[in-house]
Amino acid sequence: MTRFLSGLSLLLFYGSAYAQTAPANDPEPASPIGLIIFGVLFVGFCVGFVWMVYSADKKKKTKQANAESHDASGKTT
Question: Mean pLDDT, to the nearest integer, of 55-76?
Answer without folding.
Answer: 78
